[in-house]
Amino acid sequence: MTHQDTTGTAGTADPAPDLWPAVDELWSRLEATRVHPSPENLLLRILKLSEEVGEVAQAVIGATGQNPRKGITHTWDDVQSELCDVAITALVALRTLTPEAREVFEGHLTRVRERPLEPPA
Question: Which of 44, 52, 79, 93 is the most exposed place for a label (fewest CB within 10 A)?
Answer without folding.
Answer: 44
